[in-house]
């Protein structure tokens, strides 16, 4: 117990969570107080956690460069290991902020346990729809729809570049229901343009090891893979790093970003970026949605789904090397998905049965 308490104190202290050491987290102007709890990759993952943090900042009228309300209205706690999820959740819940946010399905079990112990505390979780507790608001996204679009972008750009028999790669973090939606949507998008496109996949089983993705990306690029889409948190940054190295050397390969627009992370010369496009999951929309509900007194437990039609997902067109013809075609595909003309399947089982994806993938539906 002493070791746990000491480690918790170190984690919370390093994260500068409880400014002033007050027993209860309350803002000075009466606005809601929020605490964001992340995994080890933190808010600097340039991906999922960063998006959640941006939503919090925007709600309070702050920016990444000017976080005026930090320590008063909002703060972040980074858990270095998964065994810290429960004790950190309990510690933050003891502070009684108006809302506690956790990011990702790896927090689901911990949240289910702790939320029962603090029935008056409001919680929000993203990428989960099975924590059915009366004080938990859950957000899910149609990642398969946004991933379909970036898959189509990659295939269309390969055709524009006149790549013969292009290959494509997918790198996942920890396999599960959510990451499966990314992979199968991506493959459906690829095959909507190039029906016989060859696809390879790899799961790092970690969200914070970019070296694993970098090594795999190098191997694939060396073997003719044209573009790699990573849905792996901080691990995916290794894909971008390898693509940057190769594009600087004149090799025509691409990384595809995820969750946030990672165009800037891929810049290697002027405005040239190794990130062709990104599947943007607007986690920030979930943060803002929940905070508005808390402030208005309309917070309600249950599942909120944010789809392409809700602007919950989308893609980036920031890269100037992205062909205008590709952008135009993808806008047409987007309209067809929203209208229902194109139906994107979000599970491996169903996509496989429909002949939309190949057998032998690392994707899992549970």
Write the layout of secondary structure elements.
Elements: H1 2-14, E1 34-38, H2 48-59, E2 74-78, H3 85-94, E3 99-103, H4 108-117, E4 123-126, E5 136-141, H5 143-160, E6 167-172, H6 177-193, E7 198-203, H7 210-222, E8 225-231, H8 237-248, E9 254-259, E10 267-269, E11 272-273, E12 275-281, H9 283-296, E13 302-306, E14 313-315, H10 324-339, H11 348-353
Parallel strand pairs: 1-2, 1-3, 3-4, 4-5, 5-13, 6-7, 6-8, 8-9, 9-12
Antiparallel strand pairs: 10-11, 12-14
Helix pairs in contact: 2-9, 3-4, 5-6, 5-10, 7-8
Walk me through the structure.
- With 366 residues, the chain is of the alpha/beta class.
- The protein has eleven helices and 14 strands.
- Strand 10 (267-269) and strand 11 form a beta hairpin.
- Helix 2 (48-59) runs parallel beside helix 9, helix 5 runs parallel beside helix 6 (177-193) and helix 5 (143-160) runs antiparallel to helix 10 (324-339).
- The protein starts with a helix and ends in a 13-residue tail after the last helix.
- The model is unreliable at 1-23 (pLDDT under 50).
Short description:
The protein is an alpha/beta fold and 366 residues long. The chain is built from 11 helices and 14 strands.
Q: Percent of residues in helical segments?
A: 25-40%
Q: Uncertain runs with pLDDT below 50, 5 residues or more?
A: 1-23
Mean pLDDT equals 91
**Structural class by SSE content:** alpha/beta
Gyration radius (Cα, Å) is 21 Å
Strand order of the largest sheet: 2-1-3-4-5-13
The main β sheet shows up as: 6 strands, parallel
Distance between the termini: 33 Å
The multimeric state of the shown protein is single chain
- How many DSSP H or I helices? 11
